[in-house]
Hints:
Layout: E1 6-11, E2 29-30, E3 33-34, H1 35-45, E4 50-55, H2 60-66, E5 70-73, H3 80-85, E6 97-102, H4 110-120, E7 128-134, E8 143-146, E9 152-156, H5 163-166, E10 170-179, H6 183-188, H7 204-210, E11 215-219, H8 231-251, E12 255-256, E13 269-270, E14 275-276, E15 281-282, E16 287-288, E17 293-294, E18 299-300, E19 304-305, E20 310-311, E21 316-317, E22 322-323, E23 328-336, E24 339-340, E25 345-353, E26 355-357, E27 362-363, E28 368-370, E29 380-382, E30 387-388, E31 393-395, E32 398-400, E33 405-406, E34 411-412, E35 421-422, H9 434-447
Parallel strand pairs: 1-4, 1-6, 4-5, 7-11, 12-14, 13-16, 14-17, 15-18, 16-19, 17-20, 18-21, 19-22, 20-23, 21-23, 22-24, 23-25, 24-26, 25-27, 26-29, 27-30, 28-31, 29-32, 30-33, 31-34, 33-35
Antiparallel strand pairs: 2-3, 6-10, 7-10, 8-9
Amino acid sequence: MSRRRTAAIVLAAGHGTRMKSEMPKVMHPLAGRPMLRLILETLEQTGIDDICVVIGPDMDQVRDAAQPHGTAVQTERLGTAHAALAARNTIPADIDDLLILNADNPLIPAASIEALLAKRAEAANPAVVVLGFRSTRTHAYGRMVVSDDGTLYRIVEAKDADPEEFAIDLCSSGMMALDGRAAFEMLEKIGNDNAQGEYYLPDVVHVAREMERPCTFVEGPEAELLGINSRAELAVAEARIQRRLRNDAMDGGATLIAPETVFFSFDTKLGRDVVIEPNVVFGPGVDIADNVTIRAFSHLEGATVAPGATVGPFARLRPGANLSRNVHIGNFVEVKNATMGEGAKANHLSYVGDSDVGAGANIGAGTITCNYDGVFKWRTTIGEGAFIGSNTSLVAPVTVGPGAVTGAGSTIAKDVDAGALAVTRAPQKQIKDWGRQTRERKLALKAKGEKG
Length: 452
């Protein structure tokens, strides 16, 4: 038996007015990436042959996020069936199954997509298979009217349902699989004789039944089929994804002291025996090796951390931070676009940016790499075993040689030779008895009610 050929249309043209945002709804992020990307990656995992994303006019952001998949533009927003028809010229004519999914249902599991396709492949050859879910809650989702044998008769919108229909617990997610050979013929027959004057995708059930083609349904998990139409619903979806990511991290061998306070991105990578303390946030692009400790209240993004390193508490790793083995980054230290050599330390109150720090170097409290001159960024190089004294300002481009030392409070604007001491502080002066005399004079003035 030959393999079935499948295509998918992902509807992403909606404005999302309830989001109250200039950003297209499907570009709002979940776990650090646009929600559109989640459903596209799920489709890719299930081996769909062709994917087309339907966008609205001037949705360049959405078009770019959809790549490498093609897009079609719905020039007028005349309903979901009208949107699906916009993809007609991008979908091959020889497909067996056509999925129509919503980009604002990003949590749809691969298992639900596979269930739709499996039902389509059954001997009954249903023209329409709708993905539904059971719910006892009041929803604005359409209700599916079905017979005892599983035949789907119609989908009635919640606002149009009579009390008996509204009490049905089988709701439509709005997503479905159609007979690929007949899909666009059925979509073209959908009318717009309704209050909104729009072409509704659920009406394809009525069209198919008029063509004497059977319709049916499959069920999926309610929590993963609900759409995202508001910021509150976006937060609910984020919470579900974070729970999943936390469980994956712990199943993979990481310890999360307070899992509910740790936030991951979709691509966070954690090795074994990693310990993550409370209130840690991972932005995109973080790769943590084995036996790393991330202490509380740290933020990491675009960073790589090698085995045995310790980060935080209250540390920030920005994009390009690359920590080698056994590096220590302490409280209130920020590292950006910098490589820290094996065993290097910056234990407190420092900024290390656009830098290369050698193995075993020690960066004292209050050190700043002055990497920006107002126009260009410049690099700082600190050699192996160098000791940077507290409150040192390193004015890039500058190199501190291996084993060199900078005196506390120095501003280093010239290269320092290997093994040398560089000090730029002013000579210390002492005025004998000045402190006592000054204090006594001021106390006398205060007693008189005067200032001096």
